[in-house]
Specification:
The complex is a heterodimer of chains A (255) and B (388).
Chain A: E1 4-15, E2 18-29, E3 33-38, H1 44-51, E4 59-64, E5 67-68, H2 74-81, E6 84-87, H3 99-110, H4 115-128, H5 145-157, E7 163-167, H6 175-192, E8 195-199, H7 203-208, E9 212-217, E10 220-225, H8 227-232, H9 236-243, H10 245-253
Chain B: H1 5-9, E1 12-17, E2 20-29, H2 34-43, H3 45-48, E3 54-64, H4 66-82, E4 89-92, H5 98-110, H6 124-163, H7 168-178, H8 183-208, H9 214-252, H10 255-261, H11 266-305, H12 309-319, H13 322-329, H14 331-348, H15 355-386
Parallel strand pairs in B: 2-3, 3-4
Antiparallel strand pairs in B: 1-2
The chains are: A alpha/beta (255), B alpha/beta (388).
The structure holds adenosine-5'-triphosphate and magnesium ion.
Magnesium ion binds next to helix 1 of chain A.
């Protein structure tokens, strides 16, 4: 039996009187790549922010790594924060630090290991995400968009997290880089035994890397499960999303 | 989960055996435990001065992450470098767990022999002079850039003037932000300045029985110098800095680039409206400051020197020549143009890191206050020469 790492129950989110989620339920199991899909404005980013404690849900229960986030004491929150890595949509690297410092920042702050070991870790993580060691001393403004994403992924991986959250990891990348990035994510999952939660629009990623997914619509989860289960569901968004040309080609040719 | 000290003691054990010394390594070699493990390892004399042959037994390691594996490899490397022959040290793991091997392969794949490029150590003596030179040339560069900026602003102004295509709505909005909303803070500061000046003079004047001269002192000092300077300083801190921060943030988020590709000239859309708004607003604020400052003096005159407001105002009519008032007000547009130009210019100097917003904002406020004081000094010389 797979172990659930994240469980969201009856989640409600409101901004003023704008209801974004009204009774969202989903479960993410250990070791899977879980996609969060939905139309623009359906609240994907918002739900991700709620999972990583950047936003407090209006009501409902969010359990991550076995801990209920609602009313979790400060210490527990801090401990949880060291157990996951987050890749923001635009990288969110610290612009006044070099790439190496960006990757090392959590290690320096949260552990007491020696500087030379930190350098080794930084170098290894850079190699893992496929960046040249030369970029270590550059600043984020000196990198291309794809390199920023890779560097941000290296930073998210710095502490060997059990959980990795990605917000639209391949958006803004060209198809080749996007595919490389997808492969990289799958590879890292297999190597490090990560559980990955990703918000995505990318039809290729959905077919090739995502194991299970939730589709948000009408303020709820309209479908949850593997790609084959999800496409069975009769919902306008799902028909539209998976009925488009690119998706049809994908479905014909399988994974 | 960090280990407790009892557990850490058991991480490493050494046992002498006939084939050599055996290091039994065990426990969870994960990031949070590494400092303890490192300490434990360093405690062993054998680690510093190993007696070979040495056998590392890893079968007890239950958990290992990338940091732990890197550390393990580093430690092995250290021991190996001290050994005479390669065979002096070996790693042994009976029934070593699958995780360990997986991590080992992973790291072997990604850990290259190359290390991170290190910044070259600098000679402090040379870098001192380098810094001076760099500052000097940066100063010259930014002086030229500033002249260029002023020229462009002025050219845009002339162009807009010919077509009369000013952004009236934008300007009125900025006038509200920089002017109307600044009234409370300017009122309070000039009032207090008026009070302080009046108090200081009252003490002296009382000694000579020249109480009524308080009117001249307060009104002339406030109108000619204090209100213009104080108001400009407040405006530099409030509006000048906000122009820098806003334009800087727009530069980082590439909003400025977006505007220029859409054909929106940033001088026409952003910089000129800000300059014009401040030029309109500052003389008015100085006038407001005059009134409140003199009012502050009047209050002190009443309670400290017993001069009633009526006689204060009468005296003001008699002695306060309008040239004092104009001498203060006329500086307003010059100060305003300086503050707006420096504020906007510094905003455009922001580079792509967020830290530079803070740096440029500081420079902007410091420079504008400094320039305001210099221009004020120039004005006093001119006024004295002209006998105003
Ligand atoms: N801080 C906020 N204040 C008010 N409303 C917000 C806030 N954040 C998000 N919203 C609203 O919540 C809804 C969901 O936003 P969210 O960013 O989660 O969408 P999304 O699914 O990530 O969309 P996209 O695919 O375009 O990124 C939107 O209607 C948005 O207007
Ligand atoms: Mg989003």
């Amino acid at each position: 039996m797979k172990k659930p790492l994240i469980r969201v129950e009856n989640l409600v989110t409101r901004f003023g009187d704008h209801v974004v989620h009204d009774g969202v339920n989903l479960t993410i199991y250990e070791g899977e790549i879980y996609g969060i899909l939905g139309g623009s404005g359906s609240g994907k980013t918002t739900i991700l922010r709620e999972l990583i404690m950047l936003h407090e849900p209006t009501a409902g229960r969010v359990t991550v790594l076995g801990h209920d986030l609602g009313g979790a004491p400060r210490e527990l929150r801090q401990r949880l924060r060291t157990q996951w890595g987050v890749l923001f949509q635009f990288g969110a690297l610290f612009t006044s630090l070099t790439i190496a410092e960006n990757i090392a920042v959590k290690l320096k702050e949260y552990t007491r290991i020696s500087d030379s070991l930190i350098d080794d870790i930084v170098a290894t993580k850079l190699e893992m995400v496929g960046l040249d060691l030369k970029v270590a001393s550059l600043y984020p403004s000196e990198l291309s968009g794809g390199m920023v994403k890779r560097a941000a992924l290296a930073r998210a991986l710095a502490m060997d997290p059990r959980l990795l959250f990605l917000d639209e990891p391949t958006s803004g990348l060209d198809p080749i880089s996007a595919e490389q990035f997808d492969n990289l994510i799958v590879q890292l999952k297999n190597l490090l035994g990560l559980t990955i939660v990703m918000v995505t629009h990318d039809i290729d990623s959905i077919f090739t890397v995502v194991d299970r997914m939730a589709v948000l619509g009408d303020r709820k989860v309209v479908a949850e499960g593997s790609i084959n289960e999800v496409v069975q569901v009769n919902h306008p968004f799902i028909r539209q999303f998976f009925g488009g040309n690119r998706a049809m080609i994908r479905r014909k040719h399988g994974k | 989960m960090p280990l407790n000290s009892e557990q850490t003691l058991k991480i490493i054990r050494t046992v002498p055996a006939k084939e050599g010394k055996i290091f039994y390594l065990s426990g969870a070699w994960t990031l949070s435990n590494l400092p303890e493990i490192e300490k434990a390892l360093k405690k062993y004399r054998e680690f510093k001065h190993p007696s070979y042959p040495l056998i590392l037994d890893i079968s007890g390691i239950t958990l290992i992450d990338t940091a732990g594996m890197l550390f393990f490899l580093k430690a092995r490397e250290t021991l190996r470098n001290k050994a005479r022959r390669k065979t002096d040290i070996s790693v042994r793991g009976v029934g070593v767990n699958e995780e360990f091997l997986k991590m080992f392969r992973l790291i072997r794949r990604y850990k290259k022999e190359r290390a991170l490029p290190k910044p070259r150590p600098r000679n402090p003596f040379a870098s001192f002079f380098e810094a001076i030179g760099r500052h000097f040339f940066n100063g010259i560069d930014s002086a030229f850039l500033f002249l260029d900026f002023i020229g462009r602003t002025y050219a845009t102004f002339l162009r807009d003037l010919l077509r009369f295509s000013f952004r009236i709505r934008e300007i009125s909005n900025l006038v509200k932000k920089a002017g109307v909303m600044a009234l409370p803070i300017i009122g309070i500061t000039t009032f207090l300045i008026g009070v302080v000046i009046a108090f200081q003079s009252a003490v002296q004047l009382q000694q000579y029985g020249a109480n009524i001269f308080i009117v001249e002192i307060v009104s002339i000092a406030i109108a000619r110098e204090l209100s213009p300077i104080i108001t400009s300083i407040v405006v530099a801190g409030r509006s000048g800095s906000s122009y820098t921060a806003q334009l800087g943030a727009m530069k980082i988020t590439e909003e400025l680039d977006a505007m220029s590709v859409m054909g929106f000239d940033i001088f026409h859309f952003l910089i000129l409206p800000r300059s014009i708004a401040l030029i309109i607003v500052l003389p008015l604020l100085i006038f407001f400051g005059d009134i409140i400052g003199i009012f502050g003096g009047m209050i002190v005159a009443k309670y400290q020197l017993g001069i009633t407001p009526i006689s204060f105002i009468d005296r003001l009519y008699e002695v306060f020549a309008m040239r004092h008032f104009y001498a203060g007000i006329i500086k307003g547009p010059f100060f305003a143009a300086t503050i707006a130009a420096i504020g906007c210019f510094r905003g455009l100097q922001v580079t792509r890191d967020t830290e530079s917003i803070g740096r440029q904002t500081t420079i902007s406020v410091v420079n504008s206050i400094f320039m305001v004081i210099i221009i004020d000094a120039v004005f006093s010389i001119i006024f004295t020469e002209l006998g105003i």
